[in-house]
Design goal:
single chain; 382 residues; alpha/beta; Alpha-Beta Plaits; eight-stranded mixed beta sheet; four-stranded antiparallel beta sheet; 34% helix; elongated; Bact_exopeptidase_dim_dom; metal-binding; metal ion binding; manganese
Length: 382
């Protein structure tokens, strides 16, 4: 098959240009403009400004009634790049450390292939989404009428995965990515002299006790058969060696795959905080934000995706979900579909996602394009 060969080098150049000019969530103005220009050049119907900087390009072919959405995320991360690549980020403190530049290029490549030879009958929506990295761009597009304006009976998304061999495709029915919660706890006393602890609630000691208790939730309140992670990632309080601080702040994250488990973790956290209030005579507040739900694949969509993947590359059933999160979860709450991983591992110890030495592996771009094309032609069969 030579339908992609002439596209690869221009797409790699496009990907590297996007990489060199990264933009954070909801600020992907140059990125979106470049994508829209490419989509219009191949004759697609292009809609901009959806959910902020989001784009949907529509390709209709034949008289089929089926509809499908294929999604790629566009935003970069607030991380300083250390790859030393010729196409390194030109924006200080910002770079494509999660491969969204590669996702954009692969979906754009699929649009180019299908625009000149659809091979299907129906309507295909190419969804270029802003602000995946913690800002809920998918939710913003949905709230802006994504699925009302562009019907998708199914929706798929592809993410590069350094932990898999380059070119290998994996997915699974059910949970594939975790729900992401974040919490901030503030313990308050009144502050006082460190030499007179009997006169002042000790917020440092209360915080230390609470951190220990929080780290017991997964091991003692969650069934061993359930997967979950609770990590305390920040603790701040105090400014002098002889002062008991008036307040201490504790922050962290929770990852889970089952809403029942998610509820139990938050419930136990609230109970423990109340106990700390009583034990240490402090006041408390808790901000608990369930900002991304678990990414739950539809079983039929995941099964079809694995069958289709096996026609273009090595395909495998992912043995377990990843505790990292993904806002494609919001789309899967609205429409059946599946989230897939595309292996891009190079060498024995490839840099992971969100690492300053990470870069998307251009060698897997062709596989990603072919997968998108095959998924479209499978669901929108002529």
């Amino acid at each position: 098959m030579n339908d992609i060969a002439d596209l690869l080098q221009p797409l790699i150049a496009f990907r590297r240009d996007i990489h060199a000019h990264p933009e954070l969530g909801f600020a992907e103005h140059r990125t979106a403009q470049r994508i829209a220009e490419q989509l219009r050049a191949i004759g697609l119907e292009v809609h901009e400004g959806i959910g902020g900087t989001g784009i949907v390009a529509v390709l209709r072919s034949g008289d089929g009634k089926r509809t499908l959405g294929l999604r790629a995320d566009m935003d970069a991360l607030p991380i300083e790049e250390h790859t030393n690549a010729a196409w390194s980020s030109t924006v200080p403190g910002c770079f494509h450390g999660c491969g969204h530049d590669g996702h954009v290029a692969m979906l754009l490549g699929a649009a180019q292939v299908l625009a000149r030879d659809p091979g299907f009958s129906g309507t295909l929506n190419f969804i270029f989404q802003p602000a995946e990295e913690g800002l809920g761009g998918a939710r913003h597009m949905i709230e802006d009428g994504l699925f009302e304006r562009f019907d998708c009976e199914r929706v798929y998304a592809l993410h590069n995965w350094p932990g898999l061999p380059a070119g290998t495709i994996a997915t699974r029915p059910g949970a594939i990515m975790g729900a992401a919660d974040k919490f901030k706890i503030v313990l308050e006393g009144k502050g006082g002299h460190a030499a007179l602890p009997q006169d002042t609630p000790d917020t440092i000691l209360a915080a230390a006790s609470l951190v220990q208790q929080l780290n017991s939730i997964i091991g003692r309140d969650i069934p061993p058969s359930a997967n979950a992670v609770l990590s305390v990632t920040e603790i701040a309080g105090g400014h002098a060696h002889n002062v008991l601080p008036a307040s201490v702040r504790i922050g962290g994250t929770v990852r889970s795959f089952d809403p029942v488990v998610q509820d139990r973790i938050e419930e136990r956290m609230r109970q423990m905080i109340k106990g700390i209030e009583t034990s240490f005579e402090v006041r408390s507040s808790l901000e608990y934000d369930r900002y991304y739900p678990a990414t739950i694949n539809d079983a039929d969509a995941a099964g079809d995706a694995l069958d289709v993947a096996a026609t273009v590359a090595s395909a495998q059933l992912a043995p377990e979900p990843a505790p990292t999160s993904e806002d494609f979860s919001f789309m899967l709450q609205e429409r059946p579909g599946a989230y897939l991983w595309l292996g891009q591992g190079r060498g024995d110890n490839p840099p992971p996602l969100h690492n300053p030495h990470y870069d998307f592996n251009d060698d897997v771009m062709e596989t990603g394009i072919r997968l998108h094309v095959a998924l479209a032609r499978h669901w929108l069969q002529d």
